[in-house]
Design goal:
Layout: H1 6-19, H2 21-26, H3 32-42, H4 48-60, H5 62-75, H6 81-97, H7 103-106, H8 117-120, H9 126-138, H10 144-153, H11 183-195, H12 201-239, E1 250-265, E2 290-304, E3 309-316, E4 328-329, E5 340-351, E6 354-361, E7 378-385, E8 393-405, E9 414-427, E10 431-443, E11 473-475, H13 478-487, E12 493-495, E13 500-513, E14 516-527, H14 532-539, E15 548-557, E16 567-576, E17 597-609, E18 612-623, E19 631-641
Antiparallel strand pairs: 1-2, 1-19, 2-3, 2-4, 3-5, 5-6, 6-7, 7-8, 8-9, 9-10, 10-13, 11-12, 13-14, 14-15, 15-16, 16-17, 17-18, 18-19
Helix pairs in contact: 3-4, 4-5, 5-6, 9-10, 9-11, 11-12
């Protein structure tokens, strides 16, 4: 039965088009159009001749057949012009979404640049699509609005007709994000979105072209920036005088110390001078308290001549007659202070574990101030070998020869020959122990008695050039001995004993509660060169043998106080008999220098800024034998290092 009514035709055509709008496009290649034409012909909407004509047009192109069908229905009044255009637009959009592979790939053409067929055409789960969109946004391929628009399309039956805002339209601006990932991977991500039917072919192509244009601009910009930077560096280099290479081998450092000092004497001390006992323990000031200010300045410069050879110079305050002090006392009518050569050496390191010094250099021994004052530097030659036995245990062996006193007109030059053997053990960066034994042989330091009773001064060169006090001495000239009481001259004295010192030193440093350390020291010395018979013969009377000394100490706190609020406390006890060591070179602060003293040392250090710290010391000491001599020394220092 055919529907003759125009109203019936219109209703039937509209119903068929609405219900099968998606089928028009989806079935254009598999016979669906023929079935639809037969249905329209059977219902009397079109004639058989019109159906045959539409079949011919749809055989060439599905879109052409659909368009012809809509035009025919519109001419019959079955649908309006607006309805025809809407159906045509929807059918075209669905056709594009149904294409799983780009047209150029179906035809066997080469893929566009950056498109990976095996990877881009894989259907991704929805949860993996969103990271792809975010990467493209972060890399400046998509704008934020575009990325959000694509996210809204995920999981929906999206068609272009339902979304009037198209992506990557011409002259559409997006925010700039610099591209840092490889170009090929980003192009592949664009292809993935197209394959997921989240963007159309036209949108994908516009995004691709915009991205490649952006990359080109970035490459040009980078090239210009690099060129400008090179040009700027050349201009700057041309204006700056290059620093000579040799200046990089120089190291400069130094320190400055301001000191307040008080020397306090007991009122019951022995007299300043007692002529009938001058030969044994000569005294200095013994009863007058003193307080004064001192400064110390040191400046050191080292130069790396080669990879294995280094030279150094050091200047310091002080004088040329006192080897155990670099202090300059203030209060000499505002006069200038001496600044003298204190270091001048070459240091050769032919092997990492072997070092050789020559000239005037710092103390090479492991020791405390029991034998050597901290300000004593050494003239001569020294060699130190430090082999590694195990990762935790190192040995060291040091030898040296040092001129002590040289005379132009005498063959009795005075020398020091010395050697030391020791080991250092470290455990887990918490415990460090050091033990060493040293032997110091002083050659030709003993005084020689002038055999002439008529000619004085024949053996004056055998007296020491510098002494503190404590060692047993005797007059080297007979006439001075006889006449000293009346002349008031103390006379030239020589040392009565030989000094061959055996020194054993130990130190234990324990990081018991990092950064706090507990440090123990122990030091023992014995003058094994002392011969009682020789000493008694030179002095002319029996002298008690006093040749031993020791020091023990405890320090707790930070190992280094050259930073703000770092601190340490120390307590030492020292016992040093008269002839245990050469009094000229032992500590000059304890008992105001020399030997024949025992007592305590208290100290505290406190950092106030980087390389700036306070330190204070209290020395309280008494004589061991001889006249009463009780001396307390207080020091307060402000130290700065650079």
């Amino acid at each position: 039965m055919r529907f003759k009514s125009k109203f019936a035709c219109t209703a039937l055509a509209s119903l068929l088009l609405v219900s099968s709008g998606s089928a028009l496009a989806a079935s254009s290649t598999d016979g669906g159009v023929d079935a639809l034409l037969e249905l329209l012909s059977a219902k009397g909407v079109i004639t058989p001749e019109e159906g045959a004509g539409l079949r011919e047009k749809s055989a060439g192109s599905a879109s052409t057949g659909i368009k012809a069908m809509l035009e025919l229905l519109e001419s019959k009044g079955a649908i309006s012009k607006e309805e025809a255009e809407a159906v045509l637009k929807r059918s075209v959009a669905k056709t594009k979404r149904k294409e799983p592979v780009p047209e150029q790939l179906e035809a066997g053409a080469e893929p566009k640049e950056g498109e990976a067929v095996s990877e881009a055409n894989i259907k991704l789960p929805e949860k993996e699509v969103r990271p792809v969109v975010e990467v493209l946004r972060e890399q400046g391929v998509l704008g934020s609005d575009e990325a959000e628009q694509i996210r809204e399309r995920i999981g929906k039956a999206w068609t272009p007709s339902e979304d009037e805002d198209f992506i990557a339209l011409e002259n559409q601006e997006i925010e700039y994000n610099r591209t840092s990932l490889p170009k090929e991977g980003l192009l592949s991500n664009i292809a993935k979105l197209r394959h997921q039917a989240l963007i159309t072919d036209e949108e994908a192509e516009r995004i691709r072209k915009r991205f490649l244009h952006k990359l080109s601009l970035e490459q040009v910009t980078d090239s210009i920036a690099a060129s400008m930077q090179d040009k700027m560096q050349m201009e700057v280099a041309g204006r700056i005088i290059p620093i000579p290479e040799w200046t990089q081998r120089i190291k400069i450092g130094g320190d400055l110390r301001l000191r307040y000092r008080a020397d306090l004497f007991d009122r019951n001390n022995g007299p300043f001078f007692k002529p009938d006992q001058f030969a044994l323990f000569p005294l200095g000031n013994s009863t007058v308290d003193r307080s004064y200010a001192q400064i110390r300045a040191r400046l050191n410069l080292s130069y790396k001549i080669t990879d294995t050879l280094e030279g150094a110079l050091g200047m310091a305050t002080g004088n040329t007659t006192n080897p155990v002090s670099t202090n300059a006392t203030l209060g000499d009518s505002l006069n200038k202070k001496n600044f003298l050569l204190d270091l001048a050496y070459l240091k050769w390191t032919p092997l990492p574990e072997l070092t050789i010094w020559g000239g005037r250099f710092a103390n090479p021994w492991f020791c405390t101030d029991l034998v050597w004052d901290q300000d004593v530097n050494f003239d001569g030659l020294a060699l130190s070998w430090k082999p590694s036995i195990t990762p935790s245990l190192n040995a060291f062996f040091t030898v040296g020869a040092f001129p002590i006193q040289e005379y132009d007109l005498s063959g009795r030059d005075k020398w020091l020959y010395a050697g030391q053997l020791g080991a250092n053990y470290t455990w887990q960066d918490k415990l460090t122990t050091t033990l060493a034994a040293a032997y110091y042989h002083f050659y030709n330091v003993t005084g020689v008695k002038n055999s002439s009773t008529t000619v004085s001064g024949l053996t004056d060169s055998t007296r020491p050039a510098f002494q503190q006090r404590g060692n047993t001495t005797f007059f080297v000239d007979n006439d001075v001995f006889v006449n000293s009481s009346s002349s008031g001259f103390d006379g030239w004295k020589g040392l009565a004993a030989d000094y061959n010192e055996l020194n054993i030193s130990a130190k234990v440093d324990y990081a018991f509660m990092d950064p706090y350390h507990l440090t123990l020291i122990a030091d023992y010395v014995n003058n094994i060169g002392y011969n009682s018979a020789d000493v008694n013969a030179r002095v002319g009377q029996a002298i008690k043998k006093e040749t031993e000394g020791f020091q023990v100490g405890l320090t707790v706190g930070h190992p280094d106080t050259r930073e703000a609020w770092k601190w340490k406390l120390m307590l030492n006890y020292k016992y040093l008999e008269a002839d245990a060591v050469l009094d000229a070179f032992t500590d000059s602060d304890f008992h105001l220098g020399g030997t024949n003293a025992k007592g305590w040392i208290f100290g505290a250090d406190l950092g106030v800024a980087k390389n700036v710290w306070f330190s204070t010391r209290w020395y309280t000491a008494n004589e061991i034998t001889g006249y009463p001599m009780s001396i307390d020394v207080f020091q307060f220092n402000l130290n700065a290092r650079f």
